[in-house]
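Our preliminary data section would be incomplete without showing what the modeling component actually yields. Below, a chain of 225 amino acids is followed by its predicted structure, encoded as tokens that our downstream tools consume directly.
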Amino acid sequence: MQFTTAAILGLAAQCASGVAPSTIAAVVHTESKGYQFALNVNGVAQQPDRPTNAADAARIARSYIAKGYSVDLGLGQINSNNMNALGLTWASVFDPCANIGAAGQVLAGNYHRVRDGRMPQEALRVALSMYNSGSQIRGFRNGYVHRVLSNAGVANGVTPVAYAAPISAAEGGKESQPPTTMLAELAAENMANAGPTPAASPPPAWDVFSRAAFERARHAEIGGS
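Predicted structure:
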């Protein structure tokens, strides 16, 4: 399944609340272009054909892992070596919410490890380098950090849409119910026209992508009022 930027923003808000959705969108766009079953086998000359479902993706990935390769998996390209530490299984790693949640966990963890003694923007870039390579340096040298920064505006002007889990045959044809947090967000959106809109809270200081967009929007609102 190919996810639009609007869908990725909705997923990020629902599943990776520790990182601003626009930052997750930039990372996902860089990593997988929003393709749910994306695979990247590290160290091979030719990548496998693109799988079309989670079962095929897991089967292909596991066949390469059995040969000694590591594989980057799903929307956030979570490395197979990190699945256990992130609480992921082959049943969950291609689930969009679980995968993006893991991506947010890795990125936020990286940031908190490197933030001391660094300006927020520098720390975020180092965290992105680590997300890509595990190194504070290699992600700069191979151009990854630059690519994410270039994609930082991918979410500008896009309205998030809520993610609804697909109907699963294993669940007797019943659509999965969204978690309580998602229901609360949808209720808040549906009540938006009932009264004045409260002022939005600024993103965390370290999230320079969203912080800059927030400040631009705030200044535009002040200038237009």
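The beta strands are 39-41, 71-73, 78-79. The first strand starts at residue 39 and ends at 41. Preliminary results of this kind motivate Aim 1 of the renewal.
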